[in-house]
Amino acid sequence: MTAEHETLSFLLHAPSKVGKSTLSSTAPPPICVLDAEGGWRFIRSAGFNGKLMRKIHWDPLQGPPPRWDGTWEVCIVSIRSWDTLRMAYAYLLQAEHDFRSLILDSITEMQRRLKANLRGTEQMRIQDWGDLLTHMDSTIRGLRDLTLLPNNVRCVVFIAETEQRNGKWRPAMQGQIHRSLPYWMDLVGYLYVDNELGADGQPTHRVRRLLITPHPEYETGERVQGVLGDIVTEPNITQMLQTIFGSSGIMESLEEATAQ
């Protein structure tokens, strides 16, 4: 397998404040974050105990993405309108850039932005729901396809809120897209906090776990043939990529990027 095929699309859902954004910060740098919730102003390091991350900001309405020069790890796009997301989407698909990872945080909030763009405060009409599905479908699948096209992107992470629907916790999206979304991804994970038990069976400390095996109560699954196991404890996306693909050109390039 060549480095250009060593890519991953990842759908992550979890309750509020569990650590979805922090987990996504462990993706390979340089990272482009489409931040619709403003949470990335609090992200200072890669993961909870990782290396400090240097940030810059990019406004797609003012021009193309910055080229990576080794002085930053994260480029943040503040998504306050659908037009900003639309322009970022166009640049990421067509312009030259150096991003190895792309994070959408969150697609649930981005769908709300699109809904507001379509109808403002007015009630959605039947045709508006069709437009909403069409735009979200093309945007998510288009950005997912960055992992399938010849470019620098090796990982695209779609973060979603979670909701219980028909007895199962699923990524929170309105309309029929919630049915098809998991099928578009290589990995669908549910993040939760758990107790680590000592030899005496008593809790010693809290840990984060990522459920990725199919489960009757959670929308989860993977197509990486079980190499990550059923549950990843204290998950790290870069380490997950290395487990999936092993030592090769992509991982060497990631190590070079991190060292600079």
Described by strand count, sense and barrel closure, the largest sheet is:
10 strands, mixed
The CATH architecture classification is 3-Layer(aba) Sandwich
N-end to C-end Cα span = 26 Å
Mean pLDDT: 89
Low-confidence stretches: none
The level 1 CATH classification is: Alpha Beta
Query: Secondary-structure element order, as H and E?
Result: EHEEEHEHHEEEHEEEEHH
CATH overall fold name? Rossmann fold
The tally of structural domains comes to 1
Decide which structural class fits the backbone.
alpha/beta
The helicity comes to: 25-40%
Shape: globular
Question: Can you describe this structure?
Answer:
With 260 residues, the protein is α/β, with parallel strands linked by helices. It has one domain: 3-Layer(aba) Sandwich (Rossmann fold), CATH 3.40.50. Helices cover 28% and strands 24% of the residues. It has seven helices and twelve strands. Strands 1, 2, 3, 4, 5, 6, 9, 10, 11 and 12 form a ten-stranded mixed sheet that branches. Strands 7-8 form a two-stranded antiparallel ribbon. Helix 3 crosses helix 4. The longest helix has 19 residues, at 126-144. The protein is globular, with a radius of gyration of 18 Å. The mean pLDDT is 89.
Overview features:
alpha/beta; single chain; ten-stranded mixed β-sheet; 28% helix; globular; two-stranded antiparallel sheet; Rossmann fold; 260 residues
Please render the helix and strand layout as text.
Blueprint (H helix, E strand, L loop, with lengths): L7 E6 L6 H5 L6 E5 L19 E3 L16 E5 L3 H13 L6 E5 L1 H13 L6 H19 L10 E6 L1 E4 L2 E4 L5 H4 L6 E11 L5 E9 L9 E2 L8 E3 L3 H9 L3 H11 L1
Parallel strand pairs: 1-6, 1-9, 2-4, 2-5, 3-4, 5-6
Antiparallel strand pairs: 7-8, 9-10, 9-11, 10-12
Helix pairs in contact: 3-4
